[in-house]
């Protein structure tokens, strides 16, 4: 139906003069009521090539005119509209932007339901003749086409990274919950091949994903350090962390402290292997290795210090430390060995007369056996017991001091304080878990997250609301790194099998902009760049997009933008929106909770949508202050 003609053409907007006979802003066609004269409604015109140009109303004007030219074209109405071109609809496809502009006095028509279907169907480019495969999920209702349901193509939405942004209370949690409920509530052919891991920073999603609301879909709920229904106690064993992750957690530097901590882990692993060998041999092996190690340490001291007084003073200090270490194990043979060493650390008139050196040469150890023990190397993900860490630290400190590194304790003080925090603080209980031992990271991923041949759970929710920022960054980073490592070693067709989606709630807390990450290199930036190749995808939710890593956000192909009012955040939105205009800024600022601007791969053009309410909703409602204050 024609409603007017274009009377002005500019690069970014057209002005329409309505027909005198267009009395109202509504029309009924084939039983469908269309609202065409209100802000945000759609209209269409044609260019000289016959392509349809889809436009959006951005201004409504009313003024009188006596122009005879307008009267000739039945354009003597006082009403005008300003429309913004969005894209071009050809016979086969819809594309953003326009190539050939319409001519002046081109007819302007109502955009019908059939036009909208043709536009939205352009996202359904893949052909699949399998009828039972679900293609879409319903996201909500269009704000431009009244009561028109908007569906998202599953492939277009989930096969690329997605950002869900908006101020607190704007509806981000509801959007995530609704999308996942739509996926997992599909009937007849269930999403049993899905694997979604949601890091629930605020502890609000358990209510939305109760097992009872899904059929043939399994959900797991984890929570560190706390056991409360429906959660299972979550654990992230320390031995699954690689060297860089240890350095990050201990706030250690690469240059000075990395080699030190590597030696600590290796010594700790040796002690674990010794004490977990054959019971009869464990004591003998430990004593032999201990003697060999401290003979070498004392030999280094003797060889580097000139005066006997300095030698014996240093040796005495080493022996005292050795006795403290042995006190943990109370080995009689070691006690006798250290006492004998001590007895040879005598000074007479400033001389030891080579007594200590002679005794060191007489110490009998099984050299080959000790060297074999020293050659044991810890591999990432291999089990060792953290109770040996302090002993290993003491031994490495003595070894470094014997080599002349007199300031090693000063250089490692911060790191060792963090080690004490790991060993003693209740916040780290979920890392010290030893009840179940995992063979490697893949064994852990399969048993805890169901990532492997047996997909036991389609949705895994990890509630991290009780952990601090350091533990949160560590936990999300280590888990994501293990999943990325698991995926990147797949080859050929395996890369496209069993995709994994990570949903990162409050992502600005651990995917930060222009800061030093706790784990040095933020794994999420690498996943954003490379994860798509291995079918590993991110869905990022944040209320502060300006604080997020631009690397991660630049790789997102879909955006769901809820209300944002902060100017810094809006400038970022301006930089990522395609075909951005000021009216988008106004829409985003004026949206009520639950409304969002959706654009990217999943839709052919930016759509203003009222997101459907999740049922049940996540536990994210605001407090009702008046009810809480004025109780009977």
Identify the notable features of this structure and list them briefly.
single chain; 632 residues; alpha/beta; 19% strand; elongated
Q: Helical stretch count?
A: 21
Radius of gyration: 34 Å
Low-pLDDT regions: none
Helical content stands at: 25-40%
Shape: elongated
Arrangement of strands in the largest sheet: 11-10-21-20-19-12-18-17-13-16-14-15
Strand content bin: 15-25%
State the end-to-end CA separation.
Answer: 60 Å
Protein model, in words:
The chain has 632 residues and is of the alpha/beta class. The strands form three sheets. A twelve-stranded mixed sheet has the order 11-10-21-20-19-12-18-17-13-16-14-15. The chain is elongated. The two termini are 60 Å apart.
Short synopsis of the structure:
The protein has 632 residues and is an alpha/beta fold.
What's the structural blueprint in terms of helices and strands?
Elements: E1 2-9, E2 14-18, E3 26-29, E4 32-35, E5 42-46, E6 52-62, H1 68-72, E7 79-89, E8 94-96, E9 107-110, H2 113-120, E10 136-142, E11 149-153, H3 154-158, E12 162-165, H4 172-184, E13 196-200, E14 219-224, E15 232-234, H5 243-249, H6 257-275, H7 279-304, H8 308-327, H9 332-343, H10 355-362, H11 367-374, H12 389-402, H13 408-411, H14 413-424, H15 441-449, E16 459-463, H16 469-488, E17 500-504, H17 523-530, E18 536-542, H18 550-554, E19 558-561, H19 567-576, H20 582-590, E20 595-600, E21 607-611, H21 625-629
Parallel strand pairs: 12-18, 12-19, 13-16, 13-17, 14-15, 14-16, 17-18
Antiparallel strand pairs: 1-2, 1-9, 2-7, 3-4, 5-6, 5-9, 6-7, 7-8, 10-11, 10-21, 19-20, 20-21
Helix pairs in contact: 5-6, 6-12, 7-8, 7-11, 7-12, 8-9, 8-12
